[in-house]
Design brief:
- The protein has 333 residues and is an alpha/beta fold.
- It has 15 helices and eight strands.
- The chain has an eight-stranded mixed beta sheet, with helices on both faces.
- Helix 8 packs parallel to helix 11 (253-262), helix 8 (179-201) packs across helix 13 (279-293) and helix 14 (299-310) runs antiparallel to helix 15.
Length: 333
C-alpha cells in the first residue's frame, strides 16, 4: 500500500518536495494562498515561487488543513521556522495517531531555541519526528537536476520507509539516525552563508570565500557536537554539503541577503523585496545564544549577528574577524 503524504507549505521547497513525492505516492499540498492552490490544481505550476517550472500532474492542493492531512500517512512540514509551531498546533486535531512528521525547515525557534523536531515532539508526543535536509536548492531540483539529501530519523525502519517516499530518479536520499546533527547542520549553515555572501558582495575573492566556508564549518561543527550531534554528520550532506551549496549558489536566499548587505544595502530593504524567507536572518541571534550557553567560540557568527541585529557594516565585520587571534587551525576562532 502506498503511503499518502500531506505536505504543509506552498513555498519553493515545500512545493518541490510535494512534486517529488507525488511521483511516488498520492500527495496533497496545503497552502494559505488560494491563487497558489488554484495554479497547482489547474495548471500544475507555482509561478510565485517556482516560475516556469512544471509540477507533477498528480499533485493536488487545498487551502483546508483538514483536507490536506486527515487521511495522510506521513506529514511533511514545509513551514518557516518562526511559523512552524503555530501551523502544527492548527494541524494537530487532524493528524492521525502515530503518523510520522518530517520537517523541511532549516532554522531554530526564537525564544525557545528549539529545533523543529523538538517542537514536533512537544506538540505531537508519540509521533516519530524527522528531518529531510541537505544541499537542496529547490529551483535546480524542480528543473530535474541531480541532487542528494538525507532523511534523518531515530527509528531506522521508519527512515527506510520514508526514503522510498522522497527518492526519485535524480533525487537521491540517504538515511541517518543523527537527527540532532542533521537538523543543526541545516540551521547553522545559513548564518555562514550570509557571511560568505557579505564577502562576495563587498568584492572579496575566492580565497576569502573558501576561508569563510572552511572556518564556518569548524564553527558549526563545534556547536553541533556540543549540542549532541555526531562529528561525521557535519562532514556529510547535512553539514559540509549543505554549507557549500548555500554559500556559493546565486539561488541561495541567505547568500543573497549577505551579498546585498555587502553591496551596502540595508537589511530592511533586502527583506522587503524578498518573497521567500532567509532563515539565517532569524537564526543568527539564536545561534549566538546557544554559543554562549555551550561556551563555544563562533567568531564568524558573532560578526554576522552584529551586522544583522546591531547595524554594523560589512566592513566592520571583516575588520572584527581580522582582529581575531589566529593560532593552530584546530583552535576555535
Amino acid at each position: 500500500m502506498k503511503l499518502r503524504v500531506g505536505l504543509l507549505g506552498g513555498g519553493s521547497w515545500g512545493t518541490t518536495v510535494a512534486s517529488l513525492t507525488a511521483q511516488n505516492t498520492p500527495t496533497k499540498l496545503w497552502a494559505k494562498n488560494a491563487t497558489t492552490v488554484e495554479e497547482i490544481n489547474k495548471y500544475h505550476r507555482n509561478e510565485k515561487y517556482l516560475p516556469g517550472a512544471s509540477l507533477t500532474e498528480s499533485l493536488t492542493a487545498t487551502t483546508s488543513l483538514k483536507e490536506a492531512i486527515q487521511d495522510s500517512d506521513v506529514i511533511v512540514m514545509g513551514i518557516p521556522s518562526q511559523s512552524f509551531r503555530h501551523v502544527l498546533e492548527d494541524a494537530r486535531p487532524f493528524i492521525r495517531p502515530w503518523v510520522p512528521i518530517v520537517s523541511l525547515s532549516k532554522g531554530l525557534e526564537q525564544g525557545t531555541r528549539m529545533r523543529m523536531t523538538e517542537i514536533i515532539e512537544t506538540i505531537m508526543p508519540g509521533h516519530p519526528a524527522g528531518v529531510l535536509t541537505g544541499p537542496n536548492l529547490a529551483r535546480e531540483i524542480i528543473a530535474g537536476q541531480a541532487a542528494a539529501s538525507v532523511i534523518a530519523m531515530i527509528d531506522h525502519t521508519i527512515a527506510v520507509a520514508l526514503q522510498k517516499v522522497f527518492r526519485t530518479g535524480l533525487f537521491r536520499v540517504y538515511t541517518n539516525e543523527d537527527v540532532v546533527g542533521c537538523e543543526l547542520g541545516g540551521a547553522l549553515k545559513n548564518v555562514i552563508a550570509i557571511a560568505a555572501g557579505m564577502g562576495d558582495g563587498a568584492g572579496a575573492g575566492d580565497n576569502t570565500r573558501a576561508a569563510v566556508i572552511t572556518r564556518g564549518l569548524a564553527e558549526l561543527t563545534r556547536l553541533g557536537v556540543a549540542m549532541g550531534g555526531r562529528p561525521e554528520t557535519f562532514a556529510g550532506l547535512a553539514g559540509m554539503g549543505d554549507l557549500v551549496a548555500t554559500c556559493i549558489s546565486s539561488l541561495s536566499r541567505n547568500r543573497h541577503v549577505g551579498f546585498q548587505l555587502g553591496q551596502g544595502r540595508t537589511l530592511d530593504e533586502i527583506i522587503d523585496e524578498m518573497s521567500m524567507v532567509a532563515e539565517g536572518v532569524k537564526t543568527c541571534g539564536v545561534v549566538m545564544e546557544l554559543a554562549k550557553q555551550y561556551h563555544i567560540e563562533m567568531p564568524i557568527t558573532y560578526e554576522v549577528n552584529k551586522v544583522i541585529l546591531e547595524g554594523n557594516t560589512v566592513r566592520d565585520a571583516f575588520r572584527g574577524l581580522l582582529r581575531q587571534r589566529s593560532g593552530a587551525e584546530s583552535d576555535p576562532g
